Amino acid sequence: MLMHCGFCEAIGDLSRFGTLIHEDDHCAVALHPDSSVAGHTMIIWKRHVENVAGLDSDELAHFSRVHRETERVLLRETGRERAMLLKLGIQVPHLHLHIYPVAATASRADVMAAIEGTVREERPPEFLERCRESLTASLS
Ligand SMILES: [Zn+2]
């Protein structure tokens, strides 16, 4: 691991990056605190790799399954049609994928505002609990 990797240092306490809606031995899924769109979520891989290219085949299969199920749950619970994905690693070069569920009518400007965090959307009541229950059911 890097000397100062925020994610590696937080393994065991990844909830500092958001409200966890799933966690297993390999990854965690957290609702992002900025709520730029209600479903803004991060999938955080626990082992320190910078890119998907650093995963072995079994890890990739697990990452992909968690990604798919997380998208399905978020799209259903937000009523949105399209999952925007962002993987940068500029601030923390440790594999984590941002998911932004948006309407199919969202413009590029709408999406960029969500990514920049210049907008905020309230999360509906029970949103967190419904996401957590659905994801637990689909990944167990
Ligand atoms: Zn790390």
In short:
The protein contains four helices and five strands. With 140 residues, it is α+β, with helices and mostly antiparallel strands. Strand 1 (19-23) and strand 2 form a beta hairpin.
What does this structure look like?
The protein is α+β, with helices and mostly antiparallel strands and 140 residues long. It has a single domain, classed as 2-Layer Sandwich (HIT family, subunit A). Helix content is 34%, strand content 19%. The protein is built from four helices and five strands; from the N terminus they run αβββαββαα. The chain has helices at residues 6-9, 57-78, 108-116, 127-139; strands at 19-23, 27-31, 41-45, 82-86, 96-102. It has a five-stranded antiparallel β-sheet with strand order 1-2-3-5-4, sandwiched between helices. The chain is globular, with a radius of gyration of 14 Å. The N and C termini lie far apart (29 Å). The mean pLDDT is 96. Zinc ion binds at residues 1-2, 5, 7-8, 48, 94.
Helix and strand arrangement:
Blueprint: H1 6-9, E1 19-23, E2 27-31, E3 41-45, H2 57-78, E4 82-86, E5 96-102, H3 108-116, H4 127-139
Antiparallel strand pairs: 1-2, 2-3, 3-5, 4-5
Helix pairs in contact: 2-4
Bound molecules: zinc ion.
Zinc ion is lined by residues 1-2, 5, 7-8, 48, 94.
Can you tell me the CATH superfamily?
HIT-like
Residue share in helix: 25-40%
Rounded to the nearest angstrom, the radius of gyration is 14 Å
Number of strands: 5
User: Quick check: average pLDDT?
Assistant: 96
CATH domain class name: Alpha Beta
| CATH fold-level topology | HIT family, subunit A
Number of helices: 4
Q: Strand percentage, roughly? A: 15-25%
Count of all domains: 1
- Ends apart, CA distance between termini: 29 Å
Order of helices and strands: HEEEHEEHH
Poorly predicted parts:
none
**What strand order characterises the main sheet?**
1-2-3-5-4
Label the structural class.
alpha+beta
Shape: globular
Biggest sheet features? 5 strands, antiparallel
So, CATH architecture?
Answer: 2-Layer Sandwich
Heteromolecules bound? zinc ion
